[in-house]
Amino acid sequence: MTWLTCYDYSLATVLNNTDLDMILVGDSGGMVVLGYPDTVPVSMNEMVILSSAVRRGAPDKFIVGDMPKGSYEVSNEVAVFNAMRFVKESGCDAVKLEGGAVMAPRVKAIADAGIPVIGHIGLTPQSSAAFGGYRVVGRNSRELEDLKNSIEELSEAGAFAILLEAIPPSIAQQLKDTSQTILFGIGAGIHTHGQLLIIHDLLGLYPDFRPKFAKCFIPEVIDEFSQSLKANEDVSLFGKTTRKDGIHEISRLAVDEFIRQVKLGLFPDSSYSYKD
Ligand code: KIV
User: Fold this and answer.
1) With contact defined as beta carbons under 8 Å apart, do 27 and 126 qualify?
2) Which residue among 24, 71, 86, 201 is best mutated to probe the pocket of ligand 1, counting the most ligand atoms within 8 A of its Cβ?
């Protein structure tokens, strides 16, 4: 399965016309769109604005709203209230929240309110300060047991899928082999059931920080794009009879290439995965 982040109307229209399975309106939008240094300051109101725009651009896609820091930790009531905002104000289909077994009661409360929930474990950027910064998780036996336990508790609580972030591929494989839950990965190697990528990484749009797993797909589609421009000899038609002359079209090609490589098991290869 293929999953990409998105935070605005125009790129959402690109995604709506592809075979992508799901969209995440991630709180990473706080960094790549709003320019915050990390995801901590992102507010619920900002997430509602971003996810509403994505819904307008991608009416046909399954959209997951990412619950920002402070919108779910305090109590089950606060968590359900804010999850409901994603559904009612933005038209999201599901929500995602960060945290392991300790967040199981929040997941249960949201799922019981009729909102599909995805868990997010491994590297959890909202609380990275408490866990020694942005780092790979699961290499020691205590962390591996924690991950297994979290998958069990979050699934039991009602999470319909779990995202693994920054986990060595062989550990992600063990987690898959020992659970029945749908596991997505970002920086978790090739073995998960689905892959998530930040769209600004896929397009090479965010220069500040590029983690190991962040593959830019533009170099692999640039030839195809320039061939299609050359095939259209009359440049005065660009933007008139064809709109396939710019960023929208090259983004579509890059997204299609991401989908193709994930489906064929070509991405992420070892150069975009952490070492075991
Ligand atoms: O906000 C986001 O895009 C995320 C990914 C980094 C997993 O949660």
Assistant:
1) yes
2) 24
